[in-house]
Design brief:
Helix content is 21%, strand content 28%. By secondary structure, it is an alpha+beta fold.
């Protein structure tokens, strides 16, 4: 089932999610619905707060980065780090109750967007390597290290379950410049091709 994606301005996006257990109601269905919703919106990651659930759960599918799309205008073809990695073809994961243990390396800038903030993309600096512990959809525990694009996607989604948005990484001046556009998004004054829930839309 396709769920509405919560837009910028909804309080759920600024709250830290709660830990969950294996008996969380209809968890399998929620995960399946989140994947359906993410694919419908052409995303590579989606966190539970983005569908109105304040819990520590997010999903990722980095397979769009497995092949270079010559017509992709959102990616910098001259980026020093490889944005295209055939090994990502099957990189599809569920992260439950994750905790990033380490972030290392030299910060690198990448142009990010967010399904909750449509039509806004900004260059964001993050460290390229992370170590994270988490539980998968079967509640089996893992501690793994990720680098490059997978780490970037995971960091972005991890921010969501901690009540942080990618625009929070911007300078105060840049956020001030985006304020009008962000306010419009919260009111539903944006053209978007997928189902959304706008917190400040006038009835």
């Amino acid at each position: 089932m396709i769920l509405p994606i919560v837009a910028y301005g909804d309080p759920v996006l600024k709250k830290e999610g709660e830990l969950i257990t294996a008996d969380y109601p209809a968890l399998d269905q929620l995960v399946a619905d989140m994947f359906d919703t993410m694919y419908k919106a052409s995303g590579v990651g989606l966190a539970a707060p983005q569908v109105g659930k304040s819990i520590k759960l997010f999903i990722v599918d980095a397979s769009p980065f497995a092949e270079k799309d010559e017509e992709d205008e959102e990616l910098d073809e001259d980026d020093e780090l490889s944005d295209y990695d055939p090994s990502l073809k099957d990189f599809k994961k569920v992260f439950i109750n994750p905790e990033i243990l380490e972030e290392t390396g030299e910060a690198w800038i990448f142009n990010e967007g967010c399904l909750s903030i449509p039509k806004v993309r900004e260059d964001i600096a993050r460290l390229p390597k992370i170590k994270i512990k988490y539980q998968d959809e079967n509640f089996e525990s893992h501690t793994e290290t990720f680098e490059g694009i997978p780490a970037r996607i995971i960091q972005h989604e991890y921010d969501h379950i901690m009540g942080k948005l990618f625009v929070d990484h911007l300078t105060p001046m840049r956020r001030k410049m985006l304020k009008g556009k962000l306010d419009d998004i919260s009111k539903g004054l944006v053209d978007v091709s997928y189902k959304m829930k706008f917190p400040n839309r006038r009835k």
